[in-house]
Specification:
The structure is a homodimer. The first copy, chain A, is an alpha+beta fold. The first copy, chain A, has eight helices and 14 strands. In chain A, strands 9-11-8-12-10-13-14 form a seven-stranded mixed sheet. In chain A, a hairpin with a 2-residue loop joins strand 3 and strand 4.
Chain lengths: ~325, ~325
């Protein structure tokens, strides 16, 4: 039993209190998903010679929200970033910045949620670090996760590979994560059904890539939403991308919240959605694969790649007009991930 | 040119301001040491099948201090952690948490310092992430770095490999980093010569391992200082470790500052020192190798491994007495790395 109920500065000192925190809270919390890392670096077996590495720091506020918490987000977000490269995610590192005064119970809850997400994704947490900052210099907890995955021979996905004629797929509804977090934070009660979509999508990417081996790329439309993702792809590939507004799945309560708050749902962050661009003749196979995967039941074909104007993304509206899909310029939803 | 001189919340939004920050500040700042990472994950070639991975978040306060800054620390600290496993560090990821209002000039200065340290260590910064938190929810800048290195076949270093009769080496003076940071922070002026020792030690580890191929382990005595390191090794190996107080190099101004502030120099953090334990018949070779390496000029043999009492570290004082080398219990120097 920890004698302290909250995090103290001395939990970050490298001394005996830090050792007890590691032994009694972290090792227990991560369970089989973690490795008690007694040495400073984890040494890992990787089959083959090419690995994918991705990092993200999570500063979401509040730490807990319907459908998830910062821990689930930190595992899923990085697993998904590694998976977008076509790699099989295997290992995660975790770096915590804890604020003095954080209830140890909150930390334990987050660790359990990280363990569950890691087990679901099939990744192991192999090394970690904890720092403690004084009260007022953090916000409870920030978490960095860095993920490592192995790339199979021949897999070469890139945002620059989209070609005119390709088809754009989305694995499900837009906006659930961003709207859930902002409404929890602001105390808005749009609907009791609103839940973050935070989920590990590595299995979905794997089956989709099996079904559509010439897939150009995968992207998880997180910060900046679908608008940032598609504008980045259009720019990297030198193509235009046009999305059918009516084809994009959006939950009614999310659509309603966006209207009330003045948000563009295409710019709202998602944490459990995947975009993929595939050659037209593999689109149906990719769609079936996505729909058969966990979290992909509502997958849809939402648009296509065109030649010009290069570097831009467009929306074909329900009235048949076409407008630019604007990227976020200022700040819409801070601290969403 | 960035139109803003300070970090805004919208620099973390995933929108166009974040893209400009990446293009105009990060890509320029890292130069050849970095890779413009347009995809979410970096894909990396690793020769051989075993990699070492280590992570650390740096929250040092102040951000700049004599001999270094948070950027140099973030590169060197993680490079050194990877190197302790015997791996050759190759790649780093970088995750920033920036506080709203941080001067962009400070960020640029830190990036240059990361670039220089990465070039010196021979590692590349291959992927990154930036989050922005509101004024008052950070402390200018926190940086996570995660490092990846390759392990040569047959290399198997571990803190549990120390055996009675082994010899303990230290690569130079103790306490320089911790005392420099705390005296900068508190406005104490002990000496104008006081400088952090933050440095990449991967080359030193490599030449020492060449010279002493049966080396048991390497450790960088950072938070918790030499006392934590030796107690951890004694515990992991089930041996006792005894250090000769007179053999441990300490700069006079550090010794004086420790006396004034009531610190035990064995508990003060170092960021450019390496401890290694080697079989007695390879100790001289290891010492010569360390001394020939950058940052190892003052390397010394400081102690030896004994049988019992297992799990404890001791100091043989200048008076010939032996006392327990206590691990830090409470908080001595917060926010030192």
């Amino acid at each position: 039993m920890m004698q302290q109920d909250t995090i103290l500065l001395s939990h970050g000192s490298g001394g005996s209190l830090m050792h007890r925190l590691i032994d009694e809270v972290f090792v227990t919390g991560f369970g089989a998903a973690g490795t008690p890392a007694l040495d400073d670096a984890a040494s890992l077996d990787v089959a083959g010679g090419r690995v994918a590495m991705s990092t993200d720091t999570y500063v979401v506020s509040p730490l807990f929200f319907p459908g998830g918490d910062i821990g689930r987000l930190a595992v899923c977000g990085t697993v998904n970033d590694v998976a977008t490269s076509g790699a099989r995610p295997l290992y995660l590192s975790v770096g915590f910045v804890l604020e003095e005064g954080l209830p140890i119970e909150d930390l334990k809850r987050v660790l359990v949620s990280m363990r569950d997400a890691a087990e679901e994704a099939g990744v192991r947490i192999v090394t970690g670090d904890t720092k403690v900052v004084e009260r007022g210099h953090g916000d409870g907890m920030y978490i960095n996760t860095t993920g490592l995955g192995v790339l199979a021979e021949g897999v070469d996905l890139s945002g620059s590979h989209c070609r005119p004629g390709d088809v754009v797929l989305l694995s499900g509804t837009l906006g659930d994560h961003g709207i859930t977090v902002v409404s929890t934070r602001e105390g808005l009660e749009f609907s009791t059904d609103l839940r973050s979509d935070a989920a590990p999508l590595n299995h979905m990417v794997a089956v989709t890539l099996d079904a559509a081996p010439d897939a150009r790329c995968f992207r998880d439309p997180t910060r900046g939403g679908l608008a940032s993702t598609l504008n980045e792809l259009a720019s990297a590939s030198g193509v235009s991308i046009t999305v059918d507004e009516l084809a994009v799945p959006v939950h009614d309560q999310v659509r309603g919240a966006c209207e009330m708050l003045g948000y563009d749902v295409f710019q709202v962050a998602n944490e459990g959605k995947m975009v993929t661009v595939v050659p037209a003749d593999q689109a149906e196979a990719a769609l079936s694969a996505m729909r058969s995967a966990p979290y992909g039941e509502e997958a849809a074909i939402i648009g296509e790649v065109g030649e010009s104007p290069a570097g831009k993304a467009y929306v074909r509206t329900s009235f048949g007009a076409t407008r630019i899909m604007d990227m976020l310029v200022g700040e819409q939803l801070p601290r969403i991930c």
